[in-house]
Amino acid sequence: MKILSASYVLTFDDNFGIITDGAIVFDEKIVEVASLEYIKEKYPNIEIIYIEGNSVLMPGLINSHIHLEFSANKTSLKYANFYSWLNSVIKNREKLIENAKTSLIKQELKKILKTGTTTIGAISSYSFDLEAVLSSPINKVFFCEAIGSKAEMIDTLFADFKSRLQQAQEYNSKNFKAGIAIHSPYSVHPFLTREVLNLAKNENLPVTSHFMESVEEKEWLNKDEGSFLEFFSNFLNQTKATSKPTEFLNLFKGVKNLSFTHCVEANEEELEKIKELNASINHCAISNRFLNNSRLNLERIDDINFSIGTDGLSSNNSLSMFDELRACLNIHYEKNIIKFAKTLLNAATNGGSRALGLNKGRIQKDFDADIISFCLPDTIEDLEDIYMQIILHTKYVDKVVIGGEFV
Ligand code: MCF
Ligand code: FE
């Protein structure tokens, strides 16, 4: 067992307990959290690692939605409008994927750890990121992506998907869990979605899908109109969407650990359905701003669990969760920013854990020991302010513990 002690221990338990001069006892799991004084007396034979100076211990951050295979993008893709972005992806995809070498993805994963993320939900289109992801100590749900809307291609696509999933499943371990990503309602044929989701239901795999990211998507799915019509008729000889949004959502009935990414254009009925499915929403604020100039209305989802994702470098300039959280503070005009900062950090810990179906995101007995530590530049007068001050001032963390080990 190990013990870490800091000026502030943020538990993210049901009461958002904060222990000043606190300590965490842990092995693979959290064993006990209490005041340093109490822990010292109870565990006299275990060395305590003290972190000096306005130090904070809290659960590692969970980036619930990321595309590592797009990590080579810096300036190639077109922002501001989803249709332009999509066309620029089609044009540059091959070059970008080719340039996202294992070594580059490994580098990005190091930065991700250094910026306080201990768990990722990684969407993998081709499994080209598998080697890099496996070599990192970070926890990962590795979502193998199904994509393809042409009926005549379903058998081939399903066979390819199954082989990628099987390969990923061979690596299931304490820090690796294979899951399933349906790309979106517009890009995956419902028959393919159904087959793939049958696997998820039978094997109890976590599932995620992009949903209602853009007005273009919404127009196409509901009315077979808009710029997607041009796109689909040019590239795929298709003039009608293959499923309506609610039909698409209905396919997910029976999936246990389910999340939908974006949902900025989802209407009341669709949000109600998402709630009924007991699904979470992965919120990627920077990506929404860059690609669509849109913002998820958080008031409309206050009874749905939400988590925070950076999306990939295909729609963000950073994979740091602290950068994303700072952007969230600026993008959302919540009245009480101090309270909102707490909500955001909760989404980045508890919210992500629930979205991915994990036992993480809290410094609480029996939860996985994924812990980060860092120092604030000065003391905190009012403890309620700590969440906002953390978001504002933290760029890198000092210590990272994953599954009880320092990494
Ligand atoms: O989340 C963003 C924007 N929405 C959709 N897809 C992606 C995003 N970043 C990368 N992608 C990938 C997706 O996984 O783009 C590929 C898919 O494989 C091409 S289809 C837009
Ligand atoms: Fe995405």
TrEMBL record:
UniProt keyword annotation of Hydrolase present: yes
Keyword field contains Hydrolase: yes
One Pfam family cited in the UniProt record for this chain: Amidohydro_1
Taxonomic lineage: Bacteria, Pseudomonadati, Campylobacterota, Epsilonproteobacteria, Campylobacterales
Lineage top rank: taxon: Bacteria
GO MF annotations, alphabetized: hydrolase activity
Matching PANTHER family: AMIDOHYDROLASE-RELATED DOMAIN-CONTAINING PROTEIN, AMINOHYDROLASE SSNA-RELATED
SUPFAM superfamilies named in the record: Composite domain of metallo-dependent hydrolases, Metallo-dependent hydrolases
InterPro entries documented for this protein: Amidohydro-rel, Metal-dep_hydrolase_composite, Metal_Hydrolase, MTA/SAH_deaminase
Alphabetic keyword roster: Hydrolase
Name the record gives this protein: Metal-dependent hydrolase
Signal peptide start-end: none
Domain Amidohydrolase-related: from-to ranges: 56-407
